[in-house]
Amino acid sequence: MRSFKETRIASFPRPLSAEQRRGRRGIVLANRSGVQRILFSVPMNSQVLVVDDSGFSRRILRQILEEAGYGVDEAKDGMEALERYALGKPQLVLLDVVMDGMSGLEVLTKLRELDAKVRVLLATADVQSSTASTAREAGAAGIIGKPFQKERVVQAISSALRGEGAWS
C-alpha cells in the first residue's frame, strides 16, 4: 500500500526553502506576492501510461504529469498500450476514448481482462452523462475532459490513485 502525504491546498506566506519542499511532490504555484501553494501531493514512483493517438495531447499530458512529479510512459494506440501495460504495470492509465484502431473503451475492456485492478482514467471532449455512464460500466476510475486543464488533470489522477472516483 502506498502512503500519500495529502496536501490539498496549503498556502505559505513566503517561498518554501529546499528543506520545506523536501517530501512534498506536486504542483507548486506562486502568486505575485510570493505566496506558494502545493496543490496535490503524489506518491513516490507513481507511473502513468498516457495513451492517445494525438502526439500533441501526449506532449501536453507528459508536461503536466512530469511537473507534478509523476513518471510518464506513452502509447500512440491501443495495441501499444496493452504491450506497455503488460511490460511496465503502471499505477494508472490515462486513455483517450476516440482513437484509430481500437477505441479507448475497447482498450479498457482488454486492460481489465489483463488486470482486474487496473486504474484507468478516460480522456474525452464528449463529457456527457451517457459517456460517463458507459465509462463507469466499463470499469473506468473516472473521466477527464478535453481540453486539458492542469489542476483538473492532477486532481483526477491523484483521486484515482487514492482509489476515489474522478467524475467531475
Please write out the topology:
Blueprint (H helix, E strand, L loop, with lengths): L9 E3 L5 H4 L4 E5 L5 E6 L5 E5 L3 H13 L3 E5 L2 H11 L3 E5 L7 H11 L5 E5 L4 H10 L3 E4 L4 H12 L7
Parallel strand pairs: 4-5, 4-6, 6-7, 7-8
Antiparallel strand pairs: 1-3, 2-3
Helix pairs in contact: 3-4
- Topology order in helix (H) and strand (E) letters: EHEEEHEHEHEHEH
CA-to-CA gap between the ends?
26 Å
The gross shape turns out to be globular
Fourth-level CATH superfamily of the largest domain: Response regulator
According to CATH, the fold-level topology of the largest domain is: Rossmann fold
Helix content: 25-40%
Would you kindly provide a written description of the structure presented here, covering whatever features stand out?
With 168 residues, the chain is an alpha/beta fold. The protein folds into two domains: 10-41, no CATH class; 47-161, Rossmann fold, CATH 3.40.50.2300. 36% of the residues lie in helices and 23% in strands. The chain has six helices and eight strands, in the order E-H-E-E-E-H-E-H-E-H-E-H-E-H. It has helices spanning 18-21, 55-67, 78-88, 104-114, 129-138, 150-161; strands at 10-12, 26-30, 36-41, 47-51, 71-75, 92-96, 120-124, 142-145. The strands form two sheets. It has a five-stranded parallel β-sheet with strand order 5-4-6-7-8, sandwiched between helices. It has a three-stranded antiparallel β-sheet with strand order 1-3-2. Helix 3 (78-88) runs parallel beside helix 4. The two termini are 26 Å apart. Residues 1-14 and 20-24 have low confidence and may be disordered.
